[in-house]
Amino acid sequence: MKIDLTQYGCTEQLEQLAAADPAFELARVTEQHRETYQVMSEIGPLPAGIIGKLRHELTVATDFPTVGDWVLIKIAPDRQLALIQRVLPRHSVLERAAVGKTGAGQLIAANVDTIFICMSLNANFNAHRVERYLTMAWDSGAVPVVVLTKADLCADVAAKLEKLADVTMGVDVITCSAQTGAGVDALKAYMTGNRTVSFIGSSGVGKSTLINGLLGSDVLVTKAIRGDDDKGRHTTTSRELLRLPTGGVVIDTPGMRELQVQGGDLAKAFADITTLASQCKFRNCTHQTEPGCAVQAAIATGELDASRLASYRKLQLELSYSDMSARERENAKIQRFFGSKKEMKRTMEHVQKIRRR
């Protein structure tokens, strides 16, 4: 039976791109396991690899296929294997800096329409973590939605929402509980037609449990959080694209305990600071000690929290490093802490003299 790929997010534009190259078939990447993939084609799911020529041409890691990508494939004569010939243009791509390798990109998902940023309302609640996720999500090209999970375990939901008010400015916020079903219908409103949604967040926030509820069965493995600190255990170990019975597709992603931003849109994620900065006396204001700084004035009156500005500066610094080479990043850090390599050498010599005394 021929698979209707519109059920997996296919559009008329994608069909036209595929028709321009009739020697190959259209498919969508549904799973990735190191250097092998699984794709959904018109004849069904197939294991797939990358053709040698394409592997040679793709020199940047983020150009390789990832879950959610639409690709052109060549199906083997026995119809048991496919080779990926080409990755079609993406309308959105979600990525982060690889853990322990600042500056290197790590793909999370591609061609996502809505990103559900999940944060639990238990002791692991952290508003600054939401800031980081939003910075990354706005840069992806998809629309972020903040999903506050485990509402049934929170004694004061209103207080948590108030803490997020500035962070989630201009972003939809859904409070839900997989146990009671509250808020699940609000999530389903984003999953219509051939749209693709992705759930991201830390381990243990309930992503897999929510997705199981949307799928109508326990497809994804879940585990209880640790009782001593409300932190979660990793359950999802790889990204996977699944079709929803009500329409649309969902991409589940592994929990992220360390989130380093690879790219980000600070103007949207910190719209309050951006708006205030436009009112500063000097266009290049650093919002520190300059006269006429609207940002510092807002902090003085309590309109803006000082920790919000601290988060903005931290992410701004991370983003400035993300496009640098390893040597450029090292030089930038030396410049920041010592002023110059010469001054760093003097400081180190001074420290060594003190140690010898």
What is the helical fraction, as a range of percent?
25-40%
Q: What kind of assembly state do the chains in view correspond to?
A: single chain
> Helix tally?
12
Order of helices and strands: HEEEHEEEEEHEHEHEHEEHHHHHH
Using brief descriptors, characterize the structure shown.
OB fold (Dihydrolipoamide Acetyltransferase, E2P); Rossmann fold; Ribonucleotide Reductase Protein R1, domain 1; 3 domains; 6-stranded mixed sheet; 5-stranded mixed barrel
Outline:
The chain has helices spanning 12-19, 52-57, 127-140, 157-164, 184-188, 207-215, 266-269, 271-277, 294-301, 306-322, 326-338, 341-356; strands at 25-33, 36-41, 44-50, 70-75, 82-87, 93-97, 105-110, 114-120, 143-149, 172-175, 196-201, 240-243, 249-252.
Can you characterise this structure?
This protein has 357 residues and is an alpha/beta fold. The chain has three domains: 83 residues, OB fold (Dihydrolipoamide Acetyltransferase, E2P) (Beta Barrel), CATH 2.40.50.140; 160 residues, P-loop containing nucleotide triphosphate hydrolases (Rossmann fold, 3-Layer(aba) Sandwich), CATH 3.40.50.300; 91 residues, Ribonucleotide Reductase Protein R1, domain 1 (Orthogonal Bundle). 32% of the residues lie in helices and 22% in strands. The strands form three sheets. Strands 10-9-8-11-13-12 form a six-stranded mixed beta sheet. Strands 1-2-3-5-4 form a five-stranded mixed β-barrel. A two-stranded antiparallel ribbon has the order 6-7. The chain is globular and about 70 Å long. The protein starts with 11 loop residues before the first helix and ends with a helix. About 6% of the residues have low confidence.
